[in-house]
Amino acid sequence: MNIRKRLLALTAITAALVAAPLAANAHRGWIVPSATVLSGDGAWVTVDAAVSNELFYPDHRPMRLDAVVITTPDGTTEPLKNGSTGQYRSVFDVELAKPGTYRIGTATANIVASWTDAGQVKRFRGTPEEFAAQVPAGAADLKTIKSFSRNETFVTRGAPTAVKPTGKGLELVPVTHPNDVVAGEAATFKFVIDGKPAADLEVTIVPGNSRYRANPGEIKVKTGPDGAVKFTLPEAGMYWLNASVRTGETGRGGGMGGPGGGAPGGQGGQG
Predict the structure, then answer these.
(1) What are the CA-CA distances from residue 116 to residues 88, 112, 136, 138 (Å)?
(2) Of 13, 97, 150, 225, which residue is least crowded by CB atoms under 10 Å?
(3) Residue 258: CB partners within 8 Å, gap ≥ 6?
(4) What residues contact residue 229 under an 8 Å CB cut-off, 6+ apart?
(5) For the chain, how long is the longest CA-to-CA vector?
């Protein structure tokens, strides 16, 4: 009998300052619902959100709730309910009032910049909106590093519905629905950057509950020219998926969720 997989705490970090491959003990952000597939009326999930060393074990700091966005199956957003932030994790509830797939997560943008003014080096760190307001348009020797972080999970009530990309930053576009991945069967995801295929992108998939395992059991695959990647998960459970790219720019150019790319502002990436 097939056992469904749950790809939880899906994280994509694009152009991040820490976009190097993650070390085994790196802090990782994750969002884990109490269930990923439900049916019937009156369905709710409770969600844990944290940044930790061990996947799905809160041991470092809570995730901030002010950046969490809940997107309903029809594309509208709704506020989280009963939110609470403790020492190591945040917790909140989501009511699945509509049938279909909910996207629960954060999407935040930041820019680090340096430029020269009257012979002195000036530095900036903040959101794209703050960058546009505070950094002179004609700044000399302007260099920027733009980061757009996305951390999300998917929960479905009833039949799954399509997950639509926003066209901002690095995103997963499911070919196989995240809540329909089946044990021992190949699944396909596609990655895009600002709506265009993300080719040759390394994707790491890590099973949860690794606290007492000597081998973390990571799966590493790369996307093809169309941004698609195929993988087979060996056993049932919760998984954390990470993909990242790095870019640095000279000037104010858009793209990668930066100014001109239309990315939302935020508090920076988790993890």
Answers:
(1) 41, 14, 10, 10
(2) 225
(3) 15, 109, 111, 128, 144, 146, 148, 249
(4) 188, 189, 190, 191, 201, 203, 221, 222, 223
(5) 70
Strand partners, 38: 157
Sorted by sequence, the CB contacts under 8 Å of residue 213 that are 6+ apart come out as: none
Element (H, E) at 131: helix 128-134
The size of the chain, in residues, is 271
**Which tokens belong to 190?**
């596609």
pTM over the 0.85 mark: no
pLDDT tens per residue, the chain (271 residues)? 444 445 444 443 333 323 333 344 468 889 999 999 999 999 999 999 999 988 899 999 999 999 899 999 999 999 999 999 999 999 999 999 999 999 999 988 888 899 999 999 999 999 889 999 999 988 999 998 887 788 999 999 999 999 988 888 888 999 999 999 888 889 999 999 889 999 999 999 988 877 777 787 889 999 999 999 999 988 888 889 988 876 655 556 554 443 332 222 222 222 2
Helix (H, G, I), strand (E, B) or coil at 224: coil
Q: Residue 40 corresponds to which tokens in the numbers above? A: 């019937």
Q: How far apart are CA 138 and CA 140, in angstroms?
A: 6
Domains of the chain, residue spans? 6-110+144-250
74, with CB counted inside 10 A (0-12, 13-18, 19+), is exposed
81-90 long-range contacts, CB within 8 A, separation 24+: 86/62, 87/62, 88/50, 88/52, 88/58, 88/59, 88/60, 88/61, 88/62, 89/48, 89/49, 89/50, 89/58, 89/62, 89/63, 90/48, 90/49, 90/50, 90/62, 90/63, 90/64, 90/65
